[in-house]
TrEMBL record:
Compartment annotation: Cell membrane
Family affiliation: Belongs to the organo anion transporter (TC 2.A.60) family.
Name listed for the protein in its UniProt record: Solute carrier organic anion transporter family member
Occurrences of domain Kazal-like (ranges): 416-483
Major place of residence: membrane
Membrane topology: Multi-pass membrane protein
Keyword Cell membrane: yes
InterPro entries: Kazal_dom, MFS_trans_sf, OATP
Amino acid sequence: MGEADETQFGFSWFRPKSLQVLSNFIPFMIILSSNALLQGAIVNGLVSVSISSIEKRFKLTSTQSGIFAATYDVFVTIMLIPLALYATKVNKVKCIGLGMMIVGIGSILVIIPEYTAGPYSVGEARKDVCVTGGPDKKCSEGSSDSFSAHRELLLLLLSQAFVGIGASPLFTYGITCLDEFDSHKRTGRNLALYMIASTVGPALAFVGCGFMLRLWGDWRTSPADMGIDGAADPRFIGMWWIGFVLCGVIALFTAFPLLMFPKRLKDTGLRKANDVHRTDASLDKDFSDHKYEFFKIILMLLKNKTCMCVILMQTIEAMLMNGYITFIPKLLETLLGFSSGNASLITGGVVVPVGIVASYIGGRIAKVFENRFKPSMYFVMTFGILAAGCSSCLLIRCESLNVFGVNVPSADLPKFGALETCSENCHCDPFFNPVCSEESKLTFLSPCHAGCADSPDIKFGAQNWTNCGCSKNTIVKKGYCDASCQKQIYQFIIMFIALSFCIFITAPVLQSSSLRVVNHKHRDHFTCFGWLWMRILGSIPGAIVFGYIIDVNCMYWQKDCVSQKCQYYNASNLGWAFFIFTIAVKLTGGVLLFMAAYFYKESDKPSGKESCRTLDTDASESVKMSYEKLLCRGVSSTSSSVIQCVPYLQFTGFFLKNSFKTRL
């Protein structure tokens, strides 16, 4: 195949001239970012928003839904080793395209368990008011261990496995392709735009899926026929699956152009003409002809102090970030008394716009630094320390509420103007629907726990109750009692914005400068190796550690026949635990970055331009595109080939096709 074919857009016989304009960096960047947006929408948006509906639809326990969410990370981790092993042997862009095809198929597969599960069935409406007659409900023995009961869960796991396998090339090969196809000076900016796209995706998914969850989700049944009045009824099931199907179909279309990209773009040589070689001296090695090339590279990375310090820093940051992403809405609910909807709205309203702005600024700063490793590390360290200071926002909280059955025992009810026996004859379902007695400023776990009597005109999801035994003179209203902490809310939001800014601004700088540490031929191995550490020792255990911290600070567990769920936490202890963990991670990360900068030694090989060092891939193309390029000539020896670059302004076809064996 000729050099012209190596940069042509298309496949096989289909290479029309009208589409060759796409074989340039900007079209590639747009298409790749659109795929990152869809992947972020599916994985970080739709799964998070739909998880409660999936639990309800297929009667999953919290443990089973956790397995469903974690399956993605497991299969991404499994794919990292083969991706690193074959990085130099495949067309990485086509691998990304094929992967996104698999993501689209996996996303569409969620419709299968929705179909095989049959019509949605519900039990008797649960009462949240006082019912005095009859015994307490008991759990019945079911056949939950049968294969049919787990069939839908297995199909859901299969869907997530497809998504994990398909998405793995996107954030490994995708990052290295951005660095490979454009100037190193613009890597930070390109990574920032890439991260912005992956941040916008979940935001769009939150908005779109939030709307679709208000629509009835089972086309074979009607909510009215099942006695369900509306979305306020806990038995209501939204159209959770439509977002997965739509994103899956769109992903199939956006992935297809990636299958037609060549290994090298037409303008790559021109864009990379002035790249500077900044590889760490101990990592500037070439194992291309070695029998055990892969293992040699991995062993070299393990032995390099700079490389391992950067990877360890990114690993503990991944642990922290994954915990924040998973549990920050719950933390806002606990510290400031937000509803789950408002907590998600505040989180998205802060993180998305701040992440976009900070990532863009970080990309511009990376360009100013020109990917110099030590200044970049000091910059990341500085903002890491600022982030540690801003994490003190986790200590801001509203006053602790008085909650009957949690921190107010029955013996203390007379202090709030109620009898100890005001609700003892009520048979309350294990349902958490907090209400407030305006008379005593006492919060109850549900209208039933407040002794509110049942009546025909009261439906589930009501906002006010009367005739309540524990609050006889006033109305009982839905929700927690007002903690009167507007000042604390404003303080928290301001500091949370600063915290988010300090975190996001460092990502493009750290990522782009880290790629300069290793030889250009080892970028994919370094990226996959780093992601392997971040997944196994960072992201996956991060959610577990944060979940443990949250669970040990639980003050009230809502238990039913198959699972239990914490509904009320010790806000003070939880805030301090998150704060101490954040400080520990940020300070440890700062020490690791300082060590990485200290051990870093830039290669002293006589090669100013990396594009000339890769004559076989980039330089020959750049020579043909301009008269003002550098001529790269090889000086051969029995053991190695030293590439020297000299400025030369006029060339002929003879110079392009032949290498000289003498120095100028």
